[in-house]
Amino acid sequence: MKLVGMDSRRLLKLNMTKTINGFSKLSKIEKIKWLAGQFCEDSAAAEQEFTTWKHPDAAIQNVIDGFAENTVANYALPYSIAPNFLINGKTYAVPMVIEESSVVAAASSAAKFWQARGGFHAEVLGTVKLGQVHFYWPGNPDKLRAIFPELKACLLDACGDLTANMDQRGGGILDLDLISFEAIEPEYYQLRASFETCDSMGANFINSVLERFADALEDFFTRFPGLSDSERDAEVVMSILSNYTPNCLVRAWVECPIESFADLARSQGMDATTLAHRFARAVRIAQIDPYRATTHNKGIYNGIDAVVLATGNDFRAIEACGHTYASRDGQYRSLSSCTVHDGIFRFELEIPLALGTVGGLTSLHPLAKRSLEILGNPSARELMCITATVGLAQNFGAVRSLITTGIQHGHMKMHLTNILNHLGSNPEEAAAAQQFFQNQTVSFSAVRSFLAEQRS
Ligand code: MEV
């Protein structure tokens, strides 16, 4: 095949194998040089870019590099603040890390709206975390159930040194159950352990305890009197925490008389009752239809993930858990619910959030630490309340837009700024465009034409 117009350097790059042994052993600058040289058309520019995206303080950069492997640069996302969150009578300015236009604006606007209506309320319903040891055992299930009390005592006994600190902080192992899956998978059992990890997310603590359980379990069967030879052979397949924590749960809610919607409703040419009922219907639809529920819950996680990221928590764990919880009755549904009764509008979110405010990234990442300071160095329980509230506010903002102006109105205003930046507009052009597009549909090509006209 003849590649017309392509210079020999580019052709050479295309033909390279692009595989490498020992990448992790290279220094950062060597990694960058290899990467830029192999994959980027303008390798000098790429090299310059990768080396620029770093923290000016080498010690801090070192900490950031320690979070992952093969790091070549820092990836920037906006760090924003949504102020005026009145939650349980206390006002917070909430840090949010998110790249999507209008999420922070929507959260801030919902915060302001509810600040004038008594604020948000939130309560923690539970803080139980879970872990599992999955094992196969060839004996009789009844026999295993009969000896389980002794096994349990032995396992708990084996963990004394691991749990001492957590016990002192008021946490530790709460319970340990044996679950048989005999009916589905012969010889498969599970130890299901529950934990209280206080202000830490607790993953390391839980996994260390589970691995100790696993060793002690195998050992127990080799020593326990009266077992046959085959019954001495328990096979632990794996030991790991479960990210599904339905009892690490928080509820956030708002409520107000329907008349409190009068101004908002009037601005949309509706009455307050119609607006409240239409809102409740929109939420109801997300409870009935999984297609809508997925988008509805995505809107909730726009807020949740942004706070989770800003505070150095694990957003993958939080999302995985929430989506399982949303399917707990066998169908994926909305995580929020809404009622309108006796003239009172109530909007509520119940969501599992296994968050920590000590340990892990929360104390290592400079901005995560700063986020927690801005939030008043909350306990994990307080952070659960704040995070759930932002999810509820986000959901409120999205549904309010959907049932009134439509979502594109707000989105496109922010999107316009991004397009203008992308097209290199100067402040005068940007101001003219903001004015012009107030009543026009924003699209990339429309903005480009507008700027071209301005420039000509
Ligand atoms: C967009 O990121 C989120 C929404 O789609 C959520 C929703 O539809 O409820 C606006």
Could you characterize the architecture of this molecule?
It is a single chain. The chain is of the alpha+beta class and 456 residues long. The chain contains 18 helices and ten strands. Strand 1 and strand 2 (90-97) form a beta hairpin. The protein is globular and about 90 Å long. The two termini are 42 Å apart. The structure holds (R)-mevalonate. The site of (R)-mevalonate (MEV) has 10 residues, from helix 11 and helix 15.
Structural class: alpha+beta
Number of strands: 10
In DSSP terms (H or I, runs of 4 or more residues), the helix count works out at: 18
| Distinct ligand kinds | (R)-mevalonate
- Gyration radius over CA: 27 Å
Largest sheet: 4 strands, antiparallel
Strand order of the largest sheet: 3-8-10-9
In total, the number of domains comes to 4
Q: What order do the helices and strands follow?
A: HHHHEEHEEHHEEHEEHHHHEEHHHHHH
Bulk shape: globular
Reported by name, the CATH topology of the largest domain is 3-hydroxy-3-methylglutaryl-coenzyme A Reductase, Chain A, domain 2
Indicate the mean pLDDT. 94
